[in-house]
Amino acid sequence: MDAQLKKGVLELCLLQCLSGGPKYGYDVIQTMRGCFPDVTESTFYAILRRLGKEGAADTYQGSESNGPVRKYYRLTDEGRERLARMSADWRSLREILEKLGIK
To answer: CB 3.0–4.6 Å: which of 38, 40, 51, 73 could bond 56 by disulfide?
Structure first.
């Protein structure tokens, strides 16, 4: 898959993954690796960090673990808006591709 296309798809999928509520970073990565086994953990974490810098995601240290402190990720209002925009773009793109006979 083209790198730029994959980057956008990964961002959309990460936003969707976080839309259900705060998630521990490792859990997010395991979910994503099940769908994208060829993508490295560092790639997912890089996108999560970028989402944080851009204000789409927030991070915090969780206290739910008896072990080491865990970093959790959650969507911000900006992140929910971005997810809605990207989801609408994805639906539009799918409609165009289907009209052209691409499945």
So the answer is: 51
